[in-house]
Amino acid sequence: MLGEIHVKILPKELKDGEERDEMFGVELYDASSGLKISKRSTAMIELVKDAKSAFQANALASLLEKIREQEKKTFGQQFKNAIMLHPTKNESGEIEQVSGGRAFFHFISIGWKVLFSIVPPAHMAGGWACFFVALAFIGLVVVVVGETAMLFGCVVGLKDGLTAVTFVAIGTSLPDTFASKSAAQKERYADAAIGNITGSNCVNVFLGLGIPWMISTIYYHSKDTTNIPASWDSAKMIEMIGVDIPVPDRTGVYYVPQGSLTIAVITYLVCSVFGFIILIIRRIVVKGELGGSDSGRFGTAFIFTLLWIAYVIVVGLASYGYFDEPITTGV
Question: In terms of DSSP H, where are the helices of the chain?
Answer without folding.
Answer: 51-71, 75-83, 100-116, 128-156, 160-163, 169-186, 191-223, 234-241, 261-285, 294-319
